[in-house]
Amino acid sequence: MSILLQSGPLALFFAFAISHALADFPLQGDYLARTKQRKQAGTLAEWLISLTAHSLIHAGGVWLVSGSVILGATELALHWLIDLGKGEGWYGYVTDQVLHISCKAIYVVLLAKGLIAV
């Protein structure tokens, strides 16, 4: 939230986008990228744990950037559902990324309008 107060909504969105890029690329790794997809995981437990672990990394980024546990928990659920859809082949990579970045834009609006407490 201090990013919003000090630098404004655009800077907050930029921080969310950076956090997303870090979590989706260097912090994900080959193992999570593969096993977060049900068809690629060896077991149901491996799939659920991998998808949840990846989503938790994203949730942590949102929490750190925003200071909001509520938005962090929201990101956990939304990221999990969006990646579930991509992993099941309901849509592709571009749609997946647009959905994720759209969530970040919504978080900025909610924070900027004071609709989410930190």
Descriptive notes:
This protein has 118 residues and is mainly α. The chain has one domain (2-112). 77% of the residues lie in helices and 0% in strands. The protein is built from six helices and no strands. Helix 2 (9-24) packs antiparallel against helix 4 and helix 4 runs antiparallel to helix 5 (69-87). The protein is elongated and about 45 Å long. This is DUF3307 domain-containing protein.
| Mean of all residue-level pLDDT scores | 95
Give the count of structural domains: 1
Tally of strands: 0
Main β sheet profile:
none
Rg over CA atoms: 14 Å
The helix-and-strand class reads: mainly alpha
Show unreliable segments. none
Residue fraction in strands: under 5%
Order of helices and strands: HHHHHH
Label the overall shape. Answer: elongated
Protein name: DUF3307 domain-containing protein
Pfam families: DUF3307
Organism: Luteolibacter soli
Features:
118 residues, mainly alpha, 0% strand, Phage_phiKZ_Orf197, DUF3307 domain-containing protein
Summarize the structure.
This protein is mainly α and about 120 residues long.
Question: How are the elements arranged and paired?
Answer:
Elements: H1 2-7, H2 9-24, H3 29-35, H4 44-66, H5 69-87, H6 93-112
Helix pairs in contact: 2-4, 2-6, 3-4, 4-5, 5-6
Organism: Luteolibacter soli
Protein name: DUF3307 domain-containing protein
Pfam family, one: DUF3307
